[in-house]
Design brief:
By secondary structure, the chain is an alpha+beta fold. It has a single domain, classed as Alpha-Beta Complex (Cytochrome C3). The chain contains five helices and three strands. It starts with a helix and ends with a strand.
């Protein structure tokens, strides 16, 4: 019985951690490979208004935005990764 309780607690903990991580992560699929954006990591390094102008809201990200002002230009300014394979993972 103790083993069952411990196992259920471990499963609940693992599920909670996974869901917490997933809530902060968005994945974009494209032919060059998946791009994973972790909102929490970016939020710890930048203030909200660095990306969100005015009231924070979801930002529409497409190829032009990601390769321009929304992502890549900021990465260049902050000496963050800018090579294709840094973001696109196959």
């Amino acid at each position: 019985m103790k083993k069952l309780v411990v196992m259920l607690m471990l499963i609940a903990f693992a599920t909670g951690v996974t869901l917490a991580f997933a809530a902060d992560t968005v994945t974009y699929d494209n032919k060059q490979g998946k791009v994973t954006f972790n909102h929490k990591v970016h939020g710890e390094k930048l203030k909200c208004d660095a990306c969100h102008k005015g009231t924070p809201a979801k930002i529409a990200v497409n190829k032009d935005a990601a390769h321009g002002a929304v992502c890549k230009d900021c990465h260049k300014e902050k000496n963050a990764p800018t090579k294709c394979g840094d973001c696109h993972k196959k």
